[in-house]
Write a structure and sequence with these properties.
135 residues; mainly beta; four-stranded antiparallel β-sheet; two-stranded antiparallel ribbon; 1 helix; 8 strands; globular
Length: 135
């Protein structure tokens, strides 16, 4: 799903009716234990302090086909140094922002399967598994 912020950014830049916000140079994927909203809210990521959690820069995507791109190589998160998503609050969504921290939520989607991510766990999206479709 795309956020209102993202749709307005794309429409303004594509149709030359507004260049603010400008198109980001990079995008970063993170994880959330809550379902984000179209307005860009309700994202619950783990703390970044002492946990090893950080958003991962997205690169090496396929060329678009019918509004769809996929990752051509693995997207791997750091090793969890603490419980990111315990059984009581598993990761249920991926979230894509226009910044490594803070920034604006632009795209989000539900994970095929919720994930418990405890200390000493690694998580990655294998090549071809992250599918982003702009509709």
């Amino acid at each position: 799903m795309t956020t209102t912020y993202f749709r307005n950014m794309i429409a303004g830049n594509v149709f030359n009716v507004g260049s603010q916000p400008a198109l980001p140079q990079s995008y970063y994927i993170g994880l959330s234990s809550t379902a984000p909203t179209e307005a860009g809210g309700n994202v619950r990521e783990p703390s970044t302090s002492g946990t090893g959690y950080a958003r991962v820069k997205i690169s090496n995507l396929t060329s678009p086909s019918n509004g769809l791109v996929k990752n051509q190589s693995n997207i791997s998160f750091n090793k969890a140094e603490a419980n990111w998503f315990p059984a009581s609050s598993p990761a249920t969504h991926y979230v894509i922002f226009d910044a490594a921290s803070g920034g604006h939520l632009v795209i989000y989607g539900e994970l095929e399967k919720s994930r418990i991510i405890e200390s000493d766990t690694y998580l990655s999206f294998p090549a071809g598994e992250l599918t982003i479709k702009i509709v």
